[in-house]
């Protein structure tokens, strides 16, 4: 990516630095809070922790690499080019797939409560499969064609697509599989949940001793819906601009260059906002964080 110069460069650097620092601290607190307290180690919270691990990796690896890309060349050599660059897509993929898994699990819990509940053992297996699947679906194709190339006397880590058609196909694949499809599944799952959730709320309200349970359940659903909305706001602009860049001459304009950088920053900002949303909207996470 070519970054604009001047004041915009300083703004982009500051935002990437904030993403790196804020994402690291916020997601680390999520992980510590879940691991520290046994009652927090539920299947849903383990999935939330998996998102936090992926988001932490984005903050610790992807955002600093963007800052490095802005100011310097690639100093890490051929092997790290093939290893680190593809990993950025793995972290994003894991976060996206886990968000979708949570949406489907909430659908099962609310709409199909008689189905067998997911256990911690199954959750751990799902998490492992998610990481391996994301590596093979996103990183492996990139690792094969990544390499070091000189430009203006400096070495850069680049992806050498064998053809324009292959590059366009791969970009469309990323947009459809990791933005359009997950968003569609998440919207479907939570829309299906709404009428069932209302009926459950009315049923539990008739039994005063279950009010606390109902409140916690509603708080969790509200938190997850907010996370989905933020996911859409942060990811959709990136998907649109990725498609425009491949199939339109508009991508050559300076305005598009600014929009592309802003969309990328917004794309990364999601990994900072997740822990803020969780702590702001979940009393369970807030109370256990205070005790940690």
From TrEMBL:
<feature type="transmembrane region" description="Helical">
    <location>
        <begin position="168"/>
        <end position="191"/>
    </location>
</feature>
<dbReference type="InterPro" id="IPR017452">
    <property type="entry name" value="GPCR_Rhodpsn_7TM"/>
</dbReference>
<feature type="transmembrane region" description="Helical">
    <location>
        <begin position="261"/>
        <end position="281"/>
    </location>
</feature>
<feature type="transmembrane region" description="Helical">
    <location>
        <begin position="6"/>
        <end position="35"/>
    </location>
</feature>
<keyword id="KW-0807">Transducer</keyword>
<feature type="transmembrane region" description="Helical">
    <location>
        <begin position="47"/>
        <end position="67"/>
    </location>
</feature>
<feature type="transmembrane region" description="Helical">
    <location>
        <begin position="220"/>
        <end position="241"/>
    </location>
</feature>
<feature type="domain" description="G-protein coupled receptors family 1 profile">
    <location>
        <begin position="26"/>
        <end position="278"/>
    </location>
</feature>
<keyword id="KW-0472">Membrane</keyword>
<protein>
    <recommendedName>
        <fullName>G-protein coupled receptors family 1 profile domain-containing protein</fullName>
    </recommendedName>
</protein>
<feature type="transmembrane region" description="Helical">
    <location>
        <begin position="87"/>
        <end position="104"/>
    </location>
</feature>
<dbReference type="GO" id="GO:0004930">
    <property type="term" value="F:G protein-coupled receptor activity"/>
</dbReference>
<feature type="transmembrane region" description="Helical">
    <location>
        <begin position="125"/>
        <end position="148"/>
    </location>
</feature>
<keyword id="KW-0675">Receptor</keyword>
<keyword id="KW-0297">G-protein coupled receptor</keyword>
<dbReference type="Pfam" id="PF00001">
    <property type="entry name" value="7tm_1"/>
</dbReference>
<dbReference type="InterPro" id="IPR000276">
    <property type="entry name" value="GPCR_Rhodpsn"/>
</dbReference>
<keyword id="KW-1133">Transmembrane helix</keyword>
<keyword id="KW-0812">Transmembrane</keyword>
<dbReference type="GO" id="GO:0005886">
    <property type="term" value="C:plasma membrane"/>
</dbReference>
